[in-house]
Amino acid sequence: MFDLGTSFLASVARDPDALAVVDGDVRLTYAQWVERIAVVAAGLGALGLRRGDHLVTVLQNRWEAATLHWACQFAGIVMTPMNWRATADEIGYVLDNAEARALAFEAVAAPAVADCPQARALPRIGIDAPAPIAFAELAAGTATATPAASADDWSLMLYTSGTTAKPKGVPRRQRAERMAALAHVAQNLYGRGEVTLGVMPLYHTMGVRSLLAMSLIGGTFVCLPRFDVVQALELIARERITNLYLVPTLYHDLVHHARFAATDTTSVRKLGFAGAPMTDGLLKALTAAFRPELFVNHYGSSEIYTFTVNQKAAEKPGSAGKAGLNQMIRVTKLGAASPDEIAAPGEEGEIIALAASDEAFEGYWRRPDANAKSLRAGWYFTGDTGCFDADGDLHVTGRVDDMIITGGENVSPVEIESCLSMHPAVAEVAVVGLPDPRWGKIVVAFVQRRAPVTGEELDAHCRSSGLANFKRPRRYEFVAAIPKSPVGKLLRRQLVAGEYEPERSGVSAARPLPQTGPCA
What is the pLDDT of residues 3-13, one digit of tens each? Predict the structure, then answer.
C-alpha cells in the first residue's frame, strides 16, 4: 500500500491545478501546496526530528496545521495533535506521555504553553505567536517532496477524551489512515473535486478523515479555525461547499440560526454525521432544509475508524446501518467476557468490532490495562450499547456506563431523547439516570426550551408517542444549555454531577412527575 506521502504525490500528479486548501486569503493548488509541505518537512528534519518522533501540535483548523499534518506524513514523524483549549497540565501530560521532540502552537494556546515546564524544554514552533521558531521561517525556502516513510510507519496519535482518567494515546499507522480515508470516500460517495468544510478539529478523527479524503479525490479542504455559525454559512455559500461532515450539535446550530434561511446552501448535496446520535427531530429538519442526495450516519471511533454506515439516515432514523467496508460487527450480552456470547436480535448488549480491520489501531500507547479491557480474542469492545433490528441494522443506544437501571429494567437514554426532540418546544434534550431510594435510579430529562412548555405537557407527548411507560422521564429539569465537549459530544456526567446552569426565564420549571415504576 502507498504511504501517505506517496499518496499525496499521486494526487498532485492527477490534479496539480485543483484547489487543495483554502484558509482566508490563502488558496493553494495541489502543486503549490506540496511545495510548502516539502519545505516544512525539511524544516522539521533540520530541527532534529526523525522518523518515528512525535510532534505535538496545539492548533486550530488553519492551513498551517494541515500543512504540518502532511509534512509529518512525508517525513515519517508522528503527528500528535491536541485540543487548542488544553491547559498547561494537559499539554505537559501529552508531551511526557508521547516523549515529544517538538511542539507547535498558536496564539490562543500561548498562555498554556508558557505555563508548561515540559514545553520550555523543547523546540517550539509558533504560528502567530512568540516562539523560538516561527512557522513562517520553517516554511521558507525550497525542497523536494520525497516521502521518507513507509505504509507501516506511525502516522498519527490521537488522544481520547479522558472523561474518567488520563487520556489514552491511540497510535495509527499510515496504511490504516489511508484505508480509512479510502473507505470514507466510498461510503460517502464522494466524487472528484468535492469541497468540504474543514471545521471538525484536526485533533479529532472526523477532521483528519475529511482532510485525507479530500486529498484522494483532488478535493478542497476549506479551513474554519473554530466553529462559528455565521462564518460557516458564509463559507458554504462563497466556496460552494458540496459536502458537510459534522457532529449533530453543529448541524443543529446551523439549521436553527437566523441567517440560515437567507444563505445559499444549494451546493451542499451530501450530509454526513458522526460522533453522537442524531435525534429524529434534527434529521427531519436537515432533510427539509438541505434536501440532500445522500445523508450518511457514520458510526466509528478513533481506535477503529468505521464500525457501521447508514447511507439513508433520514429514511431509517436511529439506525447506524450495517458494517462498513472494512469491518464486521457483533452485539454481545451486557457484561460478556467473550465475543462469542452473542445477544439475540433485538436484545440490547455491547457492540464489538473485529480488531483485524484494515482501519484499526493495534493497541493503546503504553496502556496494557486499557488493551486488556478493550481488546479481547481479536475483537474490540467499544463500550457502546446497541442491538440489531429485524433487518440486521445496528441501533446504537448509548454507552454501557450511561445505561439507566430503574427498578431492574435497562433503559437507554437515546430513544427517550429522540422522542422528546420531536416536541416543537424542545431545542435540545439530554436524559440521565439520577439516584432514587426506591427505584435505584429514575429517568430524568434535562431540556433546553425554545418555547414555553411544562413537564406535564412533555410527559403527555411521551405517552402519545408510544414511549414505554417505564422509559418515561419521572422528572424534567429545564436548563440554559446542554453541556457538551469541544467537538459537540453530550456530557451526561456533568448533568449527573449537577454541573449545569438552570434556565433563567419567566417560565416556571415543571414539578416532578408521579413515580409509577418501570413496568407501569
Answer: 999 999 999 99
